[in-house]
């Protein structure tokens, strides 16, 4: 049996195979049928604008000889993309098999719907005579750039951004919950000034929130201005119309995008580079989070909740592997590699047009799909861990040397205030503590050996590793 002979076809990539259930929401926006459906929406809305005008032109037809469409006719046109399902996908494929051109196949698909309009509506309609209005004065990229922008906008706003926001919301809730839970820091992998678990999670909340704000504020640009952006065909056909104004009306008010007035044949894709760069940046922050949490689990700071019935290792039954975080890491990396390529290549085009962007943009769904898969894994991982307080407390209790920093800093302040015996504070503390395993008694003896004033001596003696966290708990709620 050849796998290629099996029907329905076996998916080549894990996005549409093994992980389809997790990435399926993006199919609604970034699949090939979704793109074709959006192309149909663009085409029929352009027809309606040309036939019925807009407020700025007194609601007069823009193209002479066309009668304003009735509400019923407009509804019929708008139903073409809305009813684009399995049968429509097959019919579009038949047109494309003949035309060898995806946008032309969309045009013919609409033409076919217009031919059947009178029969479906049950009475004569001018729609049967309006095939020449389909794709009027348009180049394929007029349709493609608007469709792609609307597809990406929908995918980001309705799927990716909500999934990323769930991560931030979860982290924010846990940051609040663990705001006061002291935690030994490791800088360069070595014990360092303690922090709190909540504050460390809040760092990621702050970092990610900035990127998600950028994504939420992203502009999605569009154009409809002809083969080289000059409105040449438009003015050749209808010289008295204000085509730039019509273009702006269509892009902004009918398509819900930001109008780009200056383009070649293609919309320049700069907004895409901006968006994919920001999503990749957010990916990398969450990749950093995955690595940190993985190491916290390895260190015992976080404990994992085993999934009942799941196998951690094929040979070591005791193991609960942090696979969700590892899967998230890998998928964030794959997503970033594609997003980086999209960002770098889409902003370039040879003179007024080349076709490299067309095939490249078909991978937007894959790029966001890997990110979405990673987000799902990361959230699942975060929801399956909890702090191991015993390990956290043991780490703090076994590393009293981290109090060398506050002691030597207090010595500096006392030296500046004129107290004797406070010279060379860093060196004195270093001699006691560097590379040493010391405890409470060692610290208290060292403090007592110095001529601190009573208030400073009392404050330092009361310090413990668990209590030396500054205002970490307050910082968790900073700017929130």
Q: Helical region count?
A: 21
CATH superfamily of the largest domain: Fumarase/aspartase (Central domain)
The ordered H/E elements are HHHHHHHHEEHEHHEHEHHHEHHHHHH
- Tertiary shape: elongated
Strand order of the largest sheet: 1-2
Low-confidence stretches: none
Helix content: 55-70%
Supply the CATH class of the largest domain: Mainly Alpha
Domain count: the total is 3
Multimeric state: single chain
- Count the beta strands: 6
Report the major sheet.
2 strands, antiparallel
Mean pLDDT: 94
Protein name: Adenylosuccinate lyase
Keywords: Lyase, Purine biosynthesis
EC number: 4.3.2.2
GO molecular function, one term: N6-(1,2-dicarboxyethyl)AMP AMP-lyase (fumarate-forming) activity
């Amino acid at each position: 049996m050849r796998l290629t002979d099996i029907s329905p076809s076996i998916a080549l990539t894990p996005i549409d195979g093994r992980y389809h259930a997790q990435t399926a929401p993006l199919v609604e926006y970034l699949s090939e049928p979704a793109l074709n459906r959006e192309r149909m929406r663009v085409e029929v809305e352009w027809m309606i604008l040309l036939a019925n005008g807009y407020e700025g032109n007194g609601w007069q037809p823009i193209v002479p000889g066309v009668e304003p469409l009735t509400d019923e006719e407009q509804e019929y046109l708008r139903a073409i993309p809305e009813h684009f399902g399995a049968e429509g996908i097959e019919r579009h494929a038949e047109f494309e098999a003949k035309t060898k051109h995806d946008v032309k196949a969309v045009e013919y698909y609409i033409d076919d719907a217009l031919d059947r309009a009178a029969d479906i509506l049950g009475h004569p309609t001018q729609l049967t005579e309006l095939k020449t209005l389909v794709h009027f004065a348009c180049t394929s990229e007029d349709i493609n750039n608007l469709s792609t922008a609307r597809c990406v906008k929908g995918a980001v706003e309705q799927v990716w951004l909500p999934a990323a926001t769930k991560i931030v919301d979860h982290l924010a809730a846990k940051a609040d919950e663990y705001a006061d839970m002291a935690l030994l820091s490791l800088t360069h992998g070595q014990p360092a000034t303690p922090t709190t678990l909540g504050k460390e999670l809040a760092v990621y909340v702050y970092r990610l929130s900035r990127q998600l704000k950028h994504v939420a504020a992203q502009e999605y640009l569009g154009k409809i201005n002809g083969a080289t952006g000059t409105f040449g065909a438009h003015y050749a056909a209808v010289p008295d119309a204000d085509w730039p104004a019509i273009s702006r009306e269509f892009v902004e008010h009918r398509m819900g995008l930001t109008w780009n007035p200056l383009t070649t044949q293609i919309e320049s894709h700069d907004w895409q580079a901006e968006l994919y760069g920001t999503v990749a940046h957010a990916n990398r922050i969450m990749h950093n989070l995955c690595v940190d949490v993985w190491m916290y689990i390895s260190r015992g700071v976080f404990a994992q909740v085993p999934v009942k019935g799941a196998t951690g290792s094929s040979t070591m039954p005791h193991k609960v592997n942090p696979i969700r975080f590892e899967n998230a890491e890998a998928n964030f990396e794959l997503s970033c590699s594609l997003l980086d390529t999209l960002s770098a290549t889409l902003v370039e085009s040879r003179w007024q047009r080349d076709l490299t962007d067309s095939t490249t943009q078909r991978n937007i769904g894959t790029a966001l799909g890997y990110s979405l898969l990673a987000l799902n894994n990361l959230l699942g991982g975060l929801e399956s861990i909890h702090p191991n307080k015993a390990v956290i407390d043991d780490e703090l209790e076994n590393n009293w040397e981290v109090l060398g920093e506050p002691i030597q800093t207090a010595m500096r302040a006392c030296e500046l205030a004129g107290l004797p015996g406070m010279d060379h504070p860093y060196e004195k503390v270093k001699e006691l503590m560097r590379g040493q395993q010391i405890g409470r008694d060692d610290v208290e003896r060292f403090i007592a050996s110095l001529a601190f004033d009573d208030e400073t001596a009392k404050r330092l003696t009361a310090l413990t590793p668990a209590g030396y966290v500054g205002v970490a708990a307050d910082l968790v709620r900073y700017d929130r």
